[in-house]
Amino acid sequence: MKNAISAQPVRRAGPIDNGLIGEITRDALRRAALAPTYMEALDITGAALIAVAMVSRMEVHHA
After folding, report:
1. How far is CA 58 from each of CA 16, 17, 20, 38, rounded to the nearest angstrom?
2. pTM score above 0.70
3. Per-residue pLDDT tens digits for 9-59
4. Interatomic CA distance for residues 56 and 39, integer angstroms
5. Element (H or E) spanning 1, and its range?
6. Domain that holds residue 32
7. How far apart are CA 32 and CA 25, in angstroms?
């Protein structure tokens, strides 16, 4: 029996603000590098990933 679900290509709805994503990334890298512990550095990078995901999601819903 064949699978009824077919794969569809992912489409990008609109342009993503690369400037804002770059700013989030640079800030997170700087703060993580200066963090006193690796746990804090991981928290900073995790928060940056969430922020980038939210920016991307807003751009897709807005476009």
Report:
1. 9, 10, 12, 30
2. no
3. 545 555 666 899 999 999 999 999 999 999 999 999 999 999 999 998 887
4. 26
5. none
6. 18-62
7. 10
d(CA 25, CA 55): 12
DSSP, collapsed to helix, strand or coil, labels residue 12 as coil
Token pair 């890298």 is found at 29
Residue 42 lies in a domain: yes
Query: Does any domain span residue 9?
Result: no
Number of domains in the chain: 1
Q: Does 47 reside within a domain? A: yes
Tokens of 38: 């690796």
Q: With respect to residue 10, please indicate whether it lies within any of the assigned structural domains.
A: no
